[in-house]
Queue: 3 jobs
Job 1
Amino acid sequence: MIDVLQEHNLTQMNHNPTRMDNILDLTCTTNPDLVKHVSVHPGMSDHMVVISELDISAKQTKKQPREVLLYKKGNMAAITDDMDKLLDEVILAAPPDASVEHLWNEFKHRLTDSIKRNIPQKMVTGRWDVPWMTKLIKRKIRQKQRLYNRARKTGKDKDWHRFRALRKHIKSILKEAHDN
């Protein structure tokens, strides 16, 4: 066991016996500075429970910005015209010995160019993917946004009151989810 620990650069952090006078349950790490405290407590069987407190935090990865095509705002008639020209200029006018690979690359290139010219794009970024954001919380946030939109549209006190009450409720469940 000592050879395995040394081979993988592991340090054994538990120095308390976990069964009678033997250390059978281990806590091993490659970075001992992250281990705050290791303790042993009575368990349900003849082994003691090893509890390790580590100084780590969950890594949050931000999604890279990406381009999204807005097809609903696109000029589909212009794309259709471009594809008609492609048929006339490339496919029908191609020499008989033209390879399928060449024709495919020409089609793909022209279609991509047509899409870039005729369909607007926007950049979108992802939000932080936090572990406490559950489906229920996301649903409540969308509901809050709908209430806000309605309150702005109608201007009624009743709608504003509903929006504020749900906003307060979401704030409390977010805090509770984060703390748990």
Job 2
Amino acid sequence: MHRPQVVLLDEPTLGLDFEAQVQIREFVAEYVARTGACVLLTSHYLADIEALCQEVMTISGGHLTYRGPLRDIQAMASDTKRVRAQLVRPMPESELSELDLDGDVNVVDHSATELVLEVPRGRTGHVVGRLEQSDAVSDLTMVDPPARGDAAPALPAHRRGRMTAPVAVTVPQARALQRTSVRGARYVARVAGAVLRSEIQARAAYRAQLAIGALGWVVPLAFMALWRGASDDGAVSGVTQSQFTTYFAIVLVTTSLSLGGGIIFGLSDRLHDGRLSAMLLRPYHPVIVPAAEELAGNVYRLPMLVVVVPTIIIAAGGQTTGSPSDVALAVVVTVLGVAASSYLSAMVATIAFWMTKAHGVQGLLFGAEWVLGGMISPIALLPGALPSILAHQPLWYACGAPAEIVAGMGDHSWWLVAECAAWILVLHLIFRQVWRRALRKHEAVGT
């Protein structure tokens, strides 16, 4: 698990023996000291709170009734304890006086079956010891007295005779809770970053295999050879042999960086084997996990591609744009295009919520990427109005558009970035609705 900066613990020592309780407290204290995390601890067991917490909050009826240092709430409590003695026979006043109790011990209730004394906290041991010597006492218990009137406004639940569950924060910088939100782009970025770091570490042992595996994807190179042969006698629809070389070399990069396959199969497999149910309990979207897994693999693939692809372009006589602005445009379009196509993949993955054999249908997206994304050929070579139409959709942004820009094919402007951003927004809104319907189906049927 990543190192969370906010940890929620609900009755962490409940049902544990004394040694286990001590171990839990020591672990929490050590974790806070080491990471600076903020721990929110809810408990009725004051020993945990006294051992760990510097700030305490009490909640009653859904409202915060107190927030402040632990010592202040302790000061609000009475400085006395009530000792309740169950009697097996009446204890007359004369016998009570023989117990040699001090004058600061007050008799709250005295009946034939019960004796209740209000005792200063520092005197409870002496009073209990004296009561235990009496053969009239069968049982002893100690409780806190009702809160004083001056503490009642701060702790209204006490005034109503009801205990509130203390909510304690273990670090002085408890205001981190107020700055942390489980919604919003900033939170998603933080969670995605944490998950990505975890996945990168998990794949570090296989980095050589991942790097070499980047060379196993040779489909773009096969199409490069095909179109280079077709252009031996001259340009094909205005595309020269050197442009074909650069185009398919860049397509090798863009297709290797795609997240679509990992999202589709990662999400649907987790749904079918039941792991998705546990992921839904986490405070972030389940799609983040398979996307992070693919990105982590790309971290180790990209260095190999950075070396191999320029080598292919130079060795095969490829032609590249000489404009730094075009290269920057290609990089930005690649990132946004991969994001937009990932939304498409996530929506296609939700087919698994309705079909048990969804991989066949999901495979249609891969076929569409080959044609609509420009993997088989630049879309400029397609007949009729198709090039004009296909130049405004996410699959092309993620695959063919960066390759055309670097190869100097056509005239591309920074308006492509605006188009990509608009597609991401639209696909995000559509995916939210599709995901909600998929979850309703999941809740109704289960796994």
Job 3
Amino acid sequence: MSNAKLIHCEEWEKIPIGIEDTQISPTEIHQIEQVWRQKTGKRPTVFFDYSSQTIAPKNWVGSISAPGIKLQVSPKGAKDLDGGEREKLDINLGYMLRAGLYDYSVFSLSSELSGSGNQYERSLEALCDLIQIARRNKVLRRYRTHKTVSQNYRGHLVFPRQAYLQIARPNKFYTRQVELDESIPENIFLKSVLSIFHWRTSGAIRRRIEECLIDFERVETSSNPLSIYKLIRFDRLSNEYVRSIRLAKDLLEGKAVGLFAGSFLGQSTVIFMPELFQTFVSRLVTDIFKPLGFEVISQQRGRYLGAWESGPSARKNSFELIPDIEMKEFGQKQTILLLDAKWKLLSLKSNSLGIAEQDAYQVVSYCTRFDCNKAVLIYPWIDSASPFGKLPATITIPNRSASVRVSVVCVPLLWKNQSTLITDFQTSVDYCLRA
């Protein structure tokens, strides 16, 4: 792959189709599509915009490598970052993956971990963390019965076999013993996956894996972990074990929980940013405001704009409403703040700040339906601080009953440190709550 053509672009940037070095040929497009289907399991037409003369990646960042070509996609607005800024963006995306995708508290992670590593190394770090948390809470073991002949009387004698043994071999005992055994499918699978990646890594991440393997000293390994995976019963496992086992399986298969996919050896990495950004924002809101006495609800389903009074769908609900995040005071039914995360680029030169009309209409319809007069639209920003400072941009939309205040909050993707990100985000959202 060292002599492969490299095309670097941003999300939504149109790549001309042709045979020049700066263009992508129809054959190369076909190769990229094949790798895309293989690695992500998703249709390329959903994540690429096609025209007769161009192709544009959308709603994902990362890289896809195919024979003779590698396509690198950066977040919109990030193409012109310098080396240090690119490294910072990569570190912070890794932090978002761990906090949003793997359900870690934003207060328990350091955004400085693995600054020089790739996204797979961060996923392996997350796997090690999950396993250690799971085993700290509970070591999975099961009672296993085995029968042995020995000189020592341990367990329970087994008759009539013991009677026959006494005649043939006096001073020997045939006993049945019950012992706790860690070699069960869950542990075997996790140890086998760790063993595979142990030989594919080096440095700090390899040492992390070795620390986890020490905990599995009494566990067998399997040369075919996926066959062991089929034996696992998830209904008896804690959330930590479920997440660690599923992450281990996704890493083994070259993908990670639908948001991120790729080949560990082939250097392909794809992050589906709209989903990741939404889960990360939800994680931020939950970890910051739940301890302060707020109930935080993410993407609750089953509520609709209304039901048809007449026509072929009479008495049937229609137009489901699924806000990204709702906040309520603990123990209260009334929604006091609606938040919607948008993986889109703002434009400060526009009177509308570049916010799409349908996004504004959507959040206002949420407010009307849920009888809430405050909403927040949350956008990414390619810089170390929000363009609005610590307070959001706010617009008031008049209404006969009560005006609706819609605020815009930015999450700067080049944040300098974790504490600054959390403090500034809390200040902005708190202002929306209190205003």
